[in-house]
Amino acid sequence: MRASRRSPRPARRGGRHGWASAWARIGPVDPALPVLRIREEGGAAIAVLACHALHPVVLGADNTLFTADYPGVVRRQLEAAHPGAIAIFLTGCTGDVNTGHAAHASISTAPRQDRTFAEAERIGARIAEAALRAPEQPLGHEVRAARAERMLPLARTETRPPEVLAAGWRQEAAAADPARAALLRCWADWADGIAPRALSPWPARVTVFDWGGVRLVALPGEIFAQTGLDLRRALDGDPFAGRTVTFGFADGCPGYIPPAGEYRHGGYEVEEAHRYYGMPAAFAPGAAEMLVAAVRDLAGGHDNGPGSATC
């Protein structure tokens, strides 16, 4: 960033959606692959930005190395195709989308053939190829940014008192295999120290950056694919077209924020994941819809709620 400030140069922007094949998931997936390119006036690429909704967890718990998983492969191949450019990868609304394994599969450290470096390489290459095929069209010159804060409510999914949960999990851990026992002891510690806390709403910051006609929508937490589709439907009229790029894990990551329709299915993201994040409870139904409404207001230029700002 400091280097770019020291050596400014004229540039132009271009962007378009590509598509990557849907991944294993029972429910909605988001195949969109938005790509933005920044070029010098002569046409050489300065930077390439790609965004896709696929959890970067190809590698399993047997991997103990620091790694960029498949996004590292995407960046490497985009930079190879655009010599001298910097590639940026944004993780889309991917809270419930991965390459086909259950969340609980990541507890096991047993190697799996579908969660290897070779598989991360294959998937990253597939996404990079789709990004490179995305057509390009010029964008406008106006830039506008707006942000707002929404207080997202929490709701308990556990039906038994924390002390009862802790005792039960410790008893179960005594007879469980090592990986399961370690998990249950962590849950018991959570029940002792975190679960009893009062449920205060979590301050969620939402940002909309309109960059020459392309909206970059930054959301906190792990956002589900359905919410990303709902956002593009609200802003563009079509969840599979338009000029909106939605991504999560921005301005804090307090855990999964499921859409209201997911709560009836239960499962890891709805009922358990808040324990790993150190939250006293899960987000309440309607929290994801509050984020969608906030983005819609910001994109329309009429959000005046607490913590809102425009530049």
Q: Sheet with the most strands?
A: 5 strands, mixed
Distance separating the two termini? 20 Å
Query: Structurally, how many domains make up the residues?
Result: 3
Number of strands: 14
DSSP helix fraction: 25-40%
Query: Uncertain runs with pLDDT below 50, 5 residues or more?
Result: none
Average pLDDT: 89
Structural class computed from helices and strand pairing: alpha+beta
Strand content: 15-25%
Strand/helix succession: HEEEHEHEEEHHEEEHEEHEHE
Characteristic terms for this protein:
alpha+beta, 311 residues, 3 domains, five-stranded mixed beta sheet, 8 helices
Question: What do these coordinates show?
Answer:
The protein folds into 3 domains: 1-139, no CATH class; 140-158 and 200-311, no CATH class; 159-193, no CATH class. 32% of the residues lie in helices and 23% in strands. It contains 8 helices and 14 strands. Helix 4 (162-173) packs antiparallel against helix 5 (178-193). The protein is of the alpha+beta class. The longest helix is centred in the middle third of the chain and has 17 residues, at 117-133. The protein starts with a helix and ends with a strand. It has a 5-stranded mixed β-sheet with strand order 4-3-2-1-5. Strands 11-9-8-6-14 form a 5-stranded mixed β-sheet, with helices on one face.
